[in-house]
Amino acid sequence: MSRRFADLIEEAATVPVDGWDFGWLAGRATERRPSWGYARAMAARMALADTAADIDTGGGEVLAEAERLPRRVVATESWRPNLTLAQARLGPRGVHVVAAEADRLPLTSARFDLVVSRHPVQARWPEIARILTPGGRYFSQEVGPASVFELSEYFLGPQPEEVRNARHPDAAREAARAAGLRVVDLRSERLRMEFFDIGAVVYFLRKVVWIVPGFSVERFAPELEALHRQIEADGCFVAHSSRFLIEAVKP
């Protein structure tokens, strides 16, 4: 084990990974952003809304980018460390941050004319339809099928087709329609990612835990050392994220 490999692993294995700020990866990894500019488009909709909800807000990082917020905004989050971060970040702006429940959003029915979510854990379409006012709008950027599967399959081997095709935008469209919503926009893109050192890979997999479920440095030590050598030889490891934008209106 080289000293450089050991140092990179130790650093990435101990740095905190709470929240959805990926600033630690600056200069160590890159990801092309979707052409639709979710944060900017979300902020424009927030400026026109009267009541809004942000589902799975993470640490509140994306919602906090909106310069103007509606009269009433509620954000939900299920992971306790992120919930604490979101409350500290959004509370001073008057956003009420609440803990999410497993099957039901802890929000009043027909209350919100705008519901947004960037990378929801799972879009609960009947619940989204329930909390929207008539004429209300849902606006979301989601993780699409086979996202970063180059990393997933490097560590886990080839994945079955049903796993590769999970989170497909066509399935989201059908689920939205089944919940009584009218889909007015649906776009998808695959986006190049580059990891320039093995520390960036470890940090990313610790933070985005569904890419390699059960990931740990100890479990995948041989694979990590081999990937370190590959990155040193090639200059980077290339993967591709999958994203789709969906916007739906409640009649």
TrEMBL record:
The keyword Methyltransferase applies. It comes from the Bacteria. It holds the Pfam family Methyltransf_11. Gene3D superfamilies: Vaccinia Virus protein VP39. Residues 54-139 form the Methyltransferase type domain. One of its GO terms (molecular function) is S-adenosylmethionine-dependent methyltransferase activity. Coiled coil: none annotated. Keywords: Methyltransferase, Transferase. GO terms for biological process: methylation. This is Methyltransferase family protein. The keyword Methyltransferase applies. InterPro entries: 23S_rRNA_MeTrnsfrase_RlmA, Methyltransf_11, SAM-dependent_MTases_sf. SUPFAM superfamilies: S-adenosyl-L-methionine-dependent methyltransferases.
